[in-house]
Recover the amino acids of this structure.
């Protein structure tokens, strides 16, 4: 029988979707466990796929304790109670191994972040092309020379994944542990504005703040990117928290409220007018729905003639600065 790869993958995806209700967008047939989810922030599903003369695999959901075996041409493999119990046991072991692997990578990212920040400097941040282009001051952000960055990453067999031929901004990433911030990783920003996290970073719930300590705050502004947060802080003067992207707004907001239940949050949304479904506004509304007593929303309003790609508060501030200089 001639085995056609795309037919194998299509059949495997269909089996997963039929059983779980969702399936991975892309498959990797390397015999290793891979995680996926119904949403970008979800990773409850898992699969293993082997290709070759006799394509077969397994999949399931850690959330629902679902485990199935599959083979090309026959579909789901009917399992006896003992076989299913064995597969569930194998699934639990795979999950344990995967969690250990991810934890090891996160610990490495944390260690590298500390070393990078020790080697970096506050001097030169304001002159970095990203800060100049965004017209913002970035207090507590550091800058590191590309060669130094590459040297430290090489020690840990890591790559920058950005342009490191020139200086790179380092944005510390903290999580809340018993109400105190703990460094977890750093975000890297190059001269072109490309942003990457250290490999192994567990971003969920991590943040960076401008303007003081959370422990003494009564109200904070919460937004996505670091430049946006810097503009919000400069304009409004309140402690401002960056969640790095819209998918992390809810985890950060939940962490803030869990540590500080009476904290009032104003969510400064990205107004992604160019993108179908406006993910920035949609994510902000989801946060307010989840935490209705703590969260209010501010959505930047752009003039009718503003370029459609402008979306966040920093874009609005830069636009107003241009318009003001031409009047």
């Amino acid at each position: 029988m001639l085995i056609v790869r795309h037919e194998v993958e299509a059949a495997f995806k269909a089996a997963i979707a039929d059983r779980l209700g969702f399936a991975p967008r892309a498959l990797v047939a390397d015999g290793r466990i891979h995680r996926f989810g119904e949403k970008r922030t979800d990773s409850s599903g898992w699969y293993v796929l082997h290709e070759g003369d006799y394509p077969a695999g397994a999949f399931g959901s850690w959330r629902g304790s679902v485990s199935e075996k599959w083979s090309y041409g026959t579909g789901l493999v009917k399992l006896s109670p003992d076989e299913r119990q064995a597969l569930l046991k194998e699934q639990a072991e795979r999950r344990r191994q995967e969690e250990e692997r991810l934890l090891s990578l996160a610990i490495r990212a944390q260690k590298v972040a500390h070393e990078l920040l020790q080697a970096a400097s506050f001097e030169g941040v304001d002159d970095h092309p990203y800060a100049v282009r965004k017209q913002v001051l970035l207090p507590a952000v550091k800058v590191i020379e590309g060669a130094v960055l590459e040297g430290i990453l090489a020690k840990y067999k890591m790559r920058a994944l950005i342009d490191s031929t020139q200086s790179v901004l380092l944005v510390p990433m903290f999580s809340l542990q018993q109400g105190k911030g703990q460094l977890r990783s750093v975000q890297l920003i190059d001269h072109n504005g490309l942003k990457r996290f250290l490999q192994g970073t567990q971003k969920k719930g991590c943040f960076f703040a401008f303007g003081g300590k959370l422990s003494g705050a009564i109200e904070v502004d919460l937004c996505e990117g670091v430049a946006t947060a810097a503009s919000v802080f400069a304009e409004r003067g309140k402690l401002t928290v960056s969640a790095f992207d819209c998918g992390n707004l809810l985890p950060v907001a939940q962490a803030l409220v869990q540590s500080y239940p009476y904290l009032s949050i104003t969510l400064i949304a990205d107004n992604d007018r160019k993108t179908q479904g406006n993910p920035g506004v949609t994510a902000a509304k989801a946060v307010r729905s989840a935490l209705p007593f703590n969260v209010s929303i501010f959505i930047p309003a752009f003039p009718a003639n503003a370029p459609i790609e402008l979306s966040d508060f920093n874009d609005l501030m830069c636009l107003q600065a241009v318009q003001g200089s031409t009047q």
